[in-house]
Write a structure and sequence with these properties.
There is one protein chain. The chain has about 170 residues and is α+β, with helices and mostly antiparallel strands. The chain is about 45% helix and about 25% strand. It contains three helices and six strands. Strands 3-2-1-6-5-4 form a six-stranded antiparallel beta sheet, with helices on both faces. A hairpin with a 4-residue loop joins strand 1 and strand 2. The termini are far apart.
């Protein structure tokens, strides 16, 4: 998929499908503001779109800070939890980084509400591999969008040049 918004939604949907949960999210880093912004939320995270999270805060902020996958199987008892999520009814969470150009540009995460279904090592490994593939897909979509923008700018410049030459001839 080359449309960025469609791709982000697909990443979260497919990640949830891999481990059997409808509750997922995808944050993208805003380096200038120093925050992660929730761009896609499904299930219990659907109403949290546009939520901003500082580096190191909560599971996603910790993944962004370390660039490593993280699983927390009792989120509300975890000392580094994000207090804003205290009212959100999930028990366990797994987050994996999205990487591009040697840096962490976002986080894909999933949650489970049933305390009897913690995320296991195999699921964390699967999500880590999925995060690598999602990173490649994201980078391809970003490069495609940049190329399309440059192509459109070139066409506008060429059109302006043709008009200028026509005016000069007159």
């Amino acid at each position: 998929r080359l449309d960025l918004d469609e791709l982000l939604q697909t990443i979260v949907d497919r990640a949830g499908g891999l481990v059997g949960t409808p509750h997922g999210y995808l944050y993208l880093a805003d380096e200038d503001a120093g925050v992660l912004e929730l761009r896609v939320g499904t299930g219990i995270f659907e109403s949290w779109v546009d939520f901003k999270l500082a580096r190191g805060r909560g599971a996603a902020g910790r993944v962004w800070e370390t660039g490593e996958a993280l699983v927390v199987n009792d989120y509300h008892a975890w000392s580094a939890r994000q207090p804003d999520f205290d009212s959100v009814p999930f028990k366990s969470v797994v987050g994996v980084p999205l990487h591009a150009d040697g840096r962490t540009i976002g986080v894909v995460g999933l949650a489970r509400v049933d305390e009897k279904q913690p995320f296991g090592d195999a699921e964390v490994a699967l999500m880590t591999r999925f995060g690598r593939l999602a990173s490649l897909a994201f980078e391809n979509a970003r490069l495609h969008a940049t190329a399309q923008q440059e192509l459109n700018e070139r066409r506008r410049t060429e059109d302006e040049l043709v008009e200028t030459v026509a005016r000069l001839r007159q």
